[in-house]
Amino acid sequence: MTTTNELTQEMQAAKQYVDHVFEIVKKRNPGENEFHQAVQEIFESLTPVFAKYPKYIQHNILERMVEPERVISFRVPWTDDNGNVQVNRGFRVQFSSAIGPYKGGLRFHPSVNASIIKFLGFEQIFKNSLTGQPIGGGKGGSDFDPKGKSDNEVMRFTQSFMTELYRHIGPDVDVPAGDIGVGAREIGYMFGQYKRLRGSYEAGVLTGKGIAYGGSLARTEATGFGTVYFVDEMLRDKGKTFNGRTVVVSGSGNVSIYAIQKATELGATVVACSDSGGYIYDENGIDIATVKQLKEVERKRISEYVNFHPTATYTEGCAGIWSIPCKIALPCATQNEIDAESAQLLVNNGVKAVGEGANMPSTLEAIDIFLKNGVLFAPAKAANAGGVAVSALEMAQNSARVPWTFEEVDAKLHGIMKNIYKQSKEAAAEFGYEDNLVVGANIAGFVKVADAMISQGVV
């Protein structure tokens, strides 16, 4: 029989191990604040796992897991429409192949640097594990900004980007997809360049492709739909639903649009969304058709919405969106968009649930405020895993050369999100953190990858 003193000693040993590895991470990766934040959030959840299962310490799993298997950085020269040569920097971080080929999106945004790509890649290990699909963790991108660029400029940039990246990817090696700034247009140009360079048609090398050349139905909707499916499962477990609730969704890109659509279908009233310039508020409920026309077809700013709906209002700046009273908040824009102040505003205004559609949109301080105030909190690596889950389903369709219907893919997505919730809830309960899905998702994602690493030896 294990004594209280022995358990305390095991927890102390586990904490010492976790703290030691975190110090190594900070020393090896100076100034990479986003990466440090992602690592710290996960590490804080894993101490009880190491106390209960010391084999993970014996195999030094944590130090192995936080070091990417491969980091690729490269120059991307391209010519703009005025004939001037421009230079950007490209990245691909191949973090973990323990349970499958590297899988993760490409982000094109001026903020992209090594720290952001590493934080995204590290999170992707656990997110991909939670889906139950055989895919490892990776991420990539560039500090190139597609906003304001012509189609020809985007094409020249993406072709140059792929001319280097193609050496490091493949259907059974590394399968990129889209992320912020990378949609169907960018994926199409990159796939065409990859095909030209390889001299073969390897449909499974990229996901998020057009339907005409190997894409999957429901992939566009997957991350937004999946976030709402996860939050709906979380709500139902507590006897609540979306029906009749006021919802605020940040962002107005792919994830946001389809989160708005699905929440509305479930009976909610979504009253606000945003882009990098500011946010709109429509007390009658956001008209999703207008948002789709502005953002998906015309590529215009969300401020244009008020021209079609004069009772709506537009406010410059994004942070104020969290001052709007709501029962459910879905941050779907970018990392660290909800800080402690915004979290407290949401709590003061009666928020009951938060579902992260973006990657790491809440700071550690914000998460702490939500949990301490009893807010149901769906962490990103669980709640927004729908996109990569359907990317894996796209890979399966490419391998079988058999397309599935929208309804088939959507049903599989719904089942995957329900299972992720179940895994996260059960893992949290097993280690004494009832209803803490942050801890539950981290542990459930970690254990699968860690066990695979042990089984494969020191690699």
UniProtKB/TrEMBL annotation:
Q: Where is the Glutamate/phenylalanine/leucine/valine/L-tryptophan dehydrogenase C-terminal domain?
A: 216-457
Gene3D superfamilies recorded: Glutamate Dehydrogenase, chain A, domain 3 (1.10.285.10), Leucine Dehydrogenase, chain A, domain 1 (3.40.50.10860), NAD(P)-binding Rossmann-like Domain (3.40.50.720)
Site (Important for catalysis): residue numbering on this chain: D179
Q: Does the keyword Nucleotide-binding apply?
A: yes
Keywords from UniProt, A to Z, are: NAD, Nucleotide-binding, Oxidoreductase
Cellular component, GO, one term: cytosol
Catalytic residues, chain numbering: K139 (proton donor)
Annotated SUPFAM superfamilies = Aminoacid dehydrogenase-like, N-terminal domain (SSF53223), NAD(P)-binding Rossmann-fold domains (SSF51735)
Where, in this chain's numbering, is substrate bound? K103, Q124, K127, G178, S391
Check the record and name the InterPro entries matching this protein. Answer: Aminoacid_DH-like_N_sf (IPR046346), Glu/Leu/Phe/Val/Trp_DH (IPR006095), Glu/Leu/Phe/Val/Trp_DH_C (IPR006096), Glu/Leu/Phe/Val/Trp_DH_dimer (IPR006097), Glu_DH (IPR014362), Glu_Leu_Phe_Val_DH (IPR050724), NAD(P)-bd_dom_sf (IPR036291), NAD_bind_Glu_DH (IPR033922)
Q: Where is the signal peptide?
A: none
Tell me the domain of life: Bacteria
Protein residues bound to NAD(+): T223, N254
List the GO biological process terms. glutamate biosynthetic process
Q: Recorded GO terms, molecular function?
A: glutamate dehydrogenase (NADP+) activity; nucleotide binding
* Pfam family membership, one: ELFV_dehydrog_N
Q: Which family does it belong to?
A: Belongs to the Glu/Leu/Phe/Val dehydrogenases family.
How does the annotation summarize its subunit structure? Homohexamer.
Protein's UniProt name = Glutamate dehydrogenase
Source organism per UniProt? Domibacillus iocasae
